[in-house]
Here is the input.
Amino acid sequence: SHLLERIQQLDSQFNSFITVTGEQAIQQAAAADARLAQGNAPALCGVPIAHKDIFCTNGVRTSCASKMLDNFVPPYDATVVDNFLQAGAVSLGKTNMDEFAMGSSNESSYYGAVKNPWDVERIPGGSSGGSAAAVAAQLVPATTASDTGGSIRQPAAMTGTTGLKPTYGRVSRWGMIAFASSLDQGGPIARTAEDAALMLSVMAGPDTKDSTCLDRPTQDYTANLNESISGLKIGVPSEYFGEGLDSEVGARVQEALKEYEKLGAELVEISLPHSKLAVPAYYVIAPAEASANLSRFDGVRYGYRCENPADLRDLYMRSRGEGFGEEVKRRILVGSYALSAGYYDAYYNKAQQVRRLIKQDFVDAFQKVDVIMGPTAPNPAFKLGEKNADPVAMYLEDIYTIATNLAGLPGMSIPCGFAHGLPVGLQLIGNYLDEARMLNIAHQFQ
Ligand code: GLN
Here is the structure.
């Protein structure tokens, strides 16, 4: 209840929550107390968390920050939400985000922009800006989030928090509202790698309700945190230090790499030759999948419905026209175009071929190194409104994060100092299902 008061007092400055579930939290806390008193309490028993408003919560509005779902109260919990309930965690509410997770600044939310706690005139990053800002402002120790092209790591970098996007399929997507199904992956944002490891231990695991969820037993990700990293080979891709990178951000990342050398790691220069193609390939594949996923919001079954439709066509047109925001509509149009007959081969198929090449770059790199490091984002948090008129500038926020999603690999952002007085993120990219080692490497730095 201390944190609930803090949210009430402070969150008007940051807008990091869409819904605060005070009463439910107090009930969950009482249940956690009872379990603790019995003595065999699970890992996160009584620990306060909050869920990104993309995860369905039974009886609690799940809006995906869209007018389209402003009135949507799911009758079930997402697997991730259920995992935290089983673990005894106490959910304080639902965090703000970009509409349908499309964005890098949290300015496309129907509920208004989120402000960066380090400087409220600046963006917190996106799309999981609310999850990151709530942790940075110490409104809650850890949150859930999702990452399709950088949405956990980039806001973690902008807010000085630790964010982890697991291997595709490590965390169930069941009940997590779909944006681009082949790229979406849930993960935690927390203060430290240790906290992220605790969170991931609860989130990860097989789930028969999601056929893309990996059938591998879950792990205790805190077990190896203290192992030595002496002899570790860190790949440093030359492509991640070129044009577009803020020089102060670059300097902080280089200093972090030096620290790793002191810890006994060896730096190996590597090349990910197809890096430049990641953003263009993503902006064909992600909108294509989004246009298909978002076709279910038709004003008929659930979600927003326009007033007095003249006929069925009018109902579809106006419900979608009025219910979706500008960026979401832009993606639906781009995606429908890329998938249409006659253009499919030119765009969608090409993008899938590029995706394959990007994946191969990583396969080659991981023959030589254990982990890859570079900046998470090219710049620190920018001013609210600064990139709104220029979608391409906004898309370039993810130049270093998107390839990981295309390849299905795990990635992390950890704080590594300040540039222009604002937090900088160091990105770690791990090999397939190598989350435990990535967390160990991150923990050694912290
Ligand atoms: N910024 C990227 C986009 O707008 C990635 C978002 C995400 O990871 N959900 O699509």
Summary: The CA atoms of residues 387 and 394 lie 6 Å apart.
